[in-house]
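As described in the Methods, two query proteins were run sequentially through the folding procedure within a single session, without resetting any intermediate state between them. The first query and its resulting structure tokens are shown here.
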Amino acid sequence: MEETKIEVKLEAHEHEIGSLKHRVEELELQNRSIQKLDISVSKMAVNVENMLRELNKQGERMEMLKRVPTETGKLIKAAIITALVSGVIGATVTAVITLL
């Protein structure tokens, strides 16, 4: 009888060991999937960070481009005012010289 009990227990243990092996294999597969997911998320975070830096650089470039027309307008106004003042001064000097 002892042998029969031992055989039954051994068979139960073998069944349990088989079940545990199966569960461990499933856990290893899940662990690999989680590791792959972790690597993908890390890569994605780096890509998002790089995109954010590039977006900030583009924003700075846009601000510079917005300033160009304003600065050009200021230069044109200054040139026109200089030309007008020079013309007025030249006309005044010419008028003064002709009167003398």
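Immediately afterward, the second query was submitted; its sequence and tokens are:
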Amino acid sequence: MWIAASVLSAFFAGITAILAKCAIKRTDSDVATAIRTAVVLVFSLLMVLITGSFGEICNISARSVLFLVLSGLSTGASWLCYFKALSMGDVNKVVPIDKSSTIISVLFAIIIFQETNNLLIKLLGTVLLAAGIFLMVEKTKSQHSNVKRRWIMYAVLSALFAALTSILAKIGIENVESNLATAIRTCVVLIMAWLIVFLKGKQRQLHTITRKELFYICISGIATGASWLCYYYAIQNGLVSIVVPIDKLSIVVSIIFSYIVFKEKLSKKAFVGLILMISGTLLMTIFA
């Protein structure tokens, strides 16, 4: 079940990147992130009510709350960087860098959680992932100015915070129902996202969002919520070193739809990189 949940998480995460790109053509990325997080929270709370896990909130330990809050803060930072990068660069170039968080997460899982079963296979899969990411990250003609290159910095920061999120969440979600844990984390992300909006004075831009982009923001929020619920269920019940790579296969979904929607094509080099990333993930999954 946790492997199936990981696959669903990857699918919904892949769709999220495309919907988010559609939503931030004119809308500021920070504002879009804040609205999207509100949608995710509503979605998460509905799942908590459906599963009847709200009553368990009184039984959560202080340690779990601390790590869930830290995980939420890390997620918020990752999101803000990720959607800023998407607003500035191509989907098929931003996503591979963001997915490099897989390498850090797998190594942390091996060291911190002692997930050393089939260690050589995991390390080989990680090497394939790293090689694939390296091949997929290409320079474009538009990157001659420092302004155009800034998306790389945001994408790298997104990956670092995303890796930290997985580790903190694994610790915090222990003995906590996954839907309830997701809702708690989302509350933290929501507060952080709106603080950023108000601190930067961007709240006035809420009135300028078109109905079309607001629709895409809301739909991307629902897709994100579905991805999170599946992901943290898998994290709670499975191996971090396997769940994270499967989840990062969302890159396949993102690239397919980026070609269909935005006509963003992969070069031969990038395509080889994609195959290496898929191979590394499947290798770790099959021999889990």
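The radius of gyration is 18 Å. We note this only descriptively and draw no conclusion about the first query from it.
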